[in-house]
Amino acid sequence: MTEPSHLTVVDHPLVQHKLTLMRDKETSTNSFRRLLREISQLLAYEITRNMEMTTRRIETPIQAMDSPVIDGKKLALISILRAGNGLLDGVLELIPAARVGFVGLYRDEKTLQPVKYYYKVPSDLGNRLVIALDPMLATGNSSAAAIEMLKASGATNIRFMCLLAAPEGIARMKEAHPDVPIVTAAVDERLNDHGYIVPGLGDAGDRMFGTK
Ligand code: URA
Q: Which residues contact 111 (CB under 8 A, 6 or more apart)?
């Protein structure tokens, strides 16, 4: 795993193998969705390092003990709609007690700025580890705007999980939110003129929901 301060690329063979299958344009919607769920769990493993723990009193067959458990109520998963939902499903399977929020943004055709159309997040974000989920970090404009909204709601401990990142998006996030670590499966070459990641995997939302 490479680990500059703001960026972690999870170069584990299982992640890279599954990512190659996802990039392949012949991969079906069904397989794409399953692979995304599997990779999200491997990325979750990395992004939840150092998360808050508590203990639970249990009895082993031998004796009672206070044993460590994840404090899931202290975690908020925020899906950046709509593609973030593809990561959310898998992470929630691993951390079922996590609170969940949604941020919906669209790009204004005139100003090209992200505009909020939906925003519902757990209360008390300031007391939680907040993990924002969006598979594709492209220009970084909508991700940076979403993080700004989470900070305005009180979040102070935020991490960002994506599947693919473009150098442009990483730079934008680093400039806007240097305090938000990014965990990704790969950093690709660049963005094309339409804002797609190259070589990328196409439109993540279309591929996971079969809407193309
Ligand atoms: N969003 C996508 O779904 N794909 C890209 O390549 C860039 C943004």
A: none
